[in-house]
Structures are given as C-alpha cells and as structure tokens.
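= Paired protein data =
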Amino acid sequence: MGMFDTIYFEKKYSCPFCGSSIGSTQTKEFDRTLTNFHVKDCISHAEEIRIVKEGLFCNKCSKFTGKNVYIAVLRGILVGVADTLQAARRMLEDINQEKLILWYHDLFKIFREQSREKENSIRFMRNVINWFEKGRNKKKKDKKTGVDNFLFIFDKQYLNGAKDPLGAIKRYLAEKQEGEAE
C-alpha cells in the first residue's frame, strides 16, 4: 500500500454493504507522510489550487462503495470534501479572501505553538543529558549547585529527584499529556 495521508470528512458517509460509518479517506495525492488532515488544515503549498478525486472505501468491510469524493484544496488549505466535482468547484469559488486570510492566521498560530513546543522539547533533552552526564543528580545542594541549577530553571521539576534520564523523561511526558487532556 505504501505511504499515504488521511483526509477526515466533516460529514460521515455510510457504507452501502455493511452500514458502517465512513469518516475518512486515504490519498497519495499530497506529501504522503501519514498525516491526518481536517478541513482548514494546510495540506500542500500555498500556490496549489486543485480538486482531487478519491474512491470511497469502507474501513470495516474493505469494499469500494461505488462512490467518489472530491477533495477541494485552495491555496494549500483543505477547503472541504464534496460528493460531486461541481460541488467541489463551488467550494473553491465560494471561499472569499477574508476567510482564507483568517484560516492562515489560525494556521500560523498553530505553527508558532508547535515550534515553541519543539524548542522546549529539544531544550529539555539537552538539559537531561547535561544534568546526568555531569552528575548534577548526585550533587548535594550548596550555593554553587543552586546557581548551577539556575541553568535548568524550566526543567528542574522533571530533573530533581529523577534517578535516571528515563525517569526525568517520563515525568516530562506525563505532564505534557496532562496538559493536552485539559
């Protein structure tokens, strides 16, 4: 089968054979990075305007439903999924520039949050290496250690008391998962 991307529908389809709900389709028309996409997600390059036809398959019984869906992409953003080519064309025509700009603002906000999270994760990994390689986990608290620990101000709660790097990483990931759940 190879690599593909998954496009999630706003409205689900029903399989004519088993009656299952079909909420997505897979496609090899974009970057094929095993990414999940929803309406308003950036799916390709900003200059791309196109409609992609995909067969609708049932995930439960693995049969082709006999229907196609049409994935509408405007300026790299997934605008929607339609039942017909004409409906997909209307989706592209109906998007005004203001709406598209607002979507880009939302996408840029998500990009900044993800970039910040990536930077924080990289800093944490470097701090874990530094903390344990230099034996800071075994040092007694004194004035020099206190000043030294200032370097780890953002990650001390994960590092202090951790017996090994794996323990620190587990603490870090547990807190991140709690934050995502909230």
Summary: Residues 99-181 form one domain. The chain has two domains: 5-95, 99-181. The helical segments are 85-94, 97-133, 143-149, 156-159, 165-181. The mean pLDDT is 89.
